[in-house]
């Protein structure tokens, strides 16, 4: 068992969190706690899981709970760079349709940036339509 470590960076509308280590029953709640304290309300969250070789059902539960929390606050969760073992669990558990996954961190960041800009563009378009 490898205890996870976390690194966080903020961009406009996005909180990017890199995770390294296993996410399992003994430590998966650390990700939940870290995400709750580091993300900004309304931010989309990108989790770089390239350094997570193992994910168990407790880790999956935390990912689903983190996604639900983020969505309640107007954002969404984007997973990047999953290794084979975590993908196998997500597939077996039927979680793939629920979680947004990307092959690279850059793809996930682009998708989150696009999503974070979409509501702003819609608000501006609506305001513009009101002015006419």
TrEMBL record:
Span of the signal peptide: none
Domain STAS: 4-112
Domain of life according to the entry: Bacteria
Matching PROSITE patterns: STAS
Pfam family, one: STAS
Coiled-coil parts of chain: none
InterPro entries given in the database record: STAS_dom, STAS_dom_sf
Name of protein: STAS domain-containing protein
Species assigned in the record: Nonomuraea salmonea
